[in-house]
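Because showing beats explaining, we think one record worth quoting, sequence and C-alpha cells together, and here it is:
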Amino acid sequence: MPNLIIPILMYHQIDKAPPRGTPFRSLVVSQRMFKWQMRVIKALGYRGLSIGELEPYLLGQLHSKVVGITFDDGFRNVIDFGLPILQEMGFTATAYVLSSRSLKENSWDAAIGVPQKPLMTSRCIHEWISAGMEIGAHSISHQDLTLLSNQEAFRQISVSKSELAEITGGEIRHFCYPYGRFNGDHITMVREAGYQTATTVEPGRFRLGDDWLQMPRVMVARTHHPLLFALKAFAGRGDPRR
C-alpha cells in the first residue's frame, strides 16, 4: 500500500487585503496570489479537487497527484474572485457554508474588528454548485461548539446538514468545525449526523488511514508567495508529521 499523502488547502476569503493591523488580515488572499497558487498546483502536475471528489484518493482506491481545495465560512468573494480561476484551471473545490439564511455577513467576527463581508446567498450557493463545485456544512450560525451544551452542539451540526440539503437539493456529506474547535463528543455527533468527513484547522497533510472526521489542512495565507506555497503544500513545511 503506498504512503499516500494528500494536502487539503484551507482558504477563507479571496479579495483585496484589508488595512494593515486588521485582525485575520492574513486570511484574505488576493485574486492575483490565488491565481499564482492555482498555477503552481497545475504546473507541478496536481489537480485541485473538492472533498467529495477526493474520496477515492483518500481511500487509496485511486492514485494520482491531487490536492483538496476548501473555503471556510462561505464568503461571496470566493465566487466573485475565486470561482473564475478554479474554472480556468479545471479544478473543483468545497465551500463550507452556514445554513442560516438570516446571516448576511461574518457577524461573529465583528467584535474583534474584522471587516464585514457578504456571505453566499442561496442563489450564490446554486451558482457555486452549477459550476461543478461542492457545498459542505459549517454549522447553522458559526457557533463555537465547545461553548455549547451537547444538545445545542448537535443541533448546530445536524440541522445545518438538513437545511443545506433543502437549499441545494442534494446530500451534504462534509462538515467543517467552526473555529476549528471540537472535542470527542462533537466527533461522535458529526458521525451520528451522517457526515462522511470533517475538516479541522490542525496543520498537516492527510495520510492514508487518518481519521476522516479529524482531517488536517494546510492553511494558506495572503503572504504565501508561490515558492512558500509549494513548500507548505507539497514539501510539508510546517507539517508536524513531515
User: Anything to note?
Assistant: Residues 5-135+202-234 form a domain with the TIM Barrel fold (CATH 3.20.20.370).
